[in-house]
């Protein structure tokens, strides 16, 4: 068994594709209309189409998307440059901050209200001696 990728449900597949492709700079590997796969492994799916596929009907027509229960994490070598490029185009949760574990990150919402985090590479220390 191996994990493949997260697939957030989105209300407007075109708007979300444009957001991830243009604002975040991700490369599209596949666009099947209601499903878009990016080079990073992230995939997005038009919510009502996926609801029909999985459950056979449309329950809330997008009411439950982006409910503060999912964080999409991306790494970036220059978090300050990423912040300068992305921040003017998003609703920020917070600007670049140093976390308790030492990593600098910023967070914002995608068009469906999913939280997105951009963080600098984690520095690991050798504790073996």
Verbal overview:
The chain is of the alpha/beta class. It has one domain (9-119): 2,3-Dihydroxybiphenyl 1,2-Dioxygenase, domain 1 (Roll), CATH 3.10.180.10. It has helices at residues 13-23, 47-55, 79-86, and strands at 9-10, 28-31, 35-38, 43-46, 71-75, 91-98, 104-109, 115-119. The strands form 2 sheets. It has a 4-stranded mixed beta sheet. The protein has a 4-stranded mixed beta sheet with strand order 5-8-7-6, with helices on one face. The longest helix has 11 residues, at 13-23.
Secondary structure: elements and pairs:
Blueprint: E1 9-10, H1 13-23, E2 28-31, E3 35-38, E4 43-46, H2 47-55, E5 71-75, H3 79-86, E6 91-98, E7 104-109, E8 115-119
Parallel strand pairs: 1-4, 5-8
Antiparallel strand pairs: 2-3, 3-4, 6-7, 7-8
Summarize the structure.
By secondary structure, the protein is α/β, with parallel strands linked by helices.
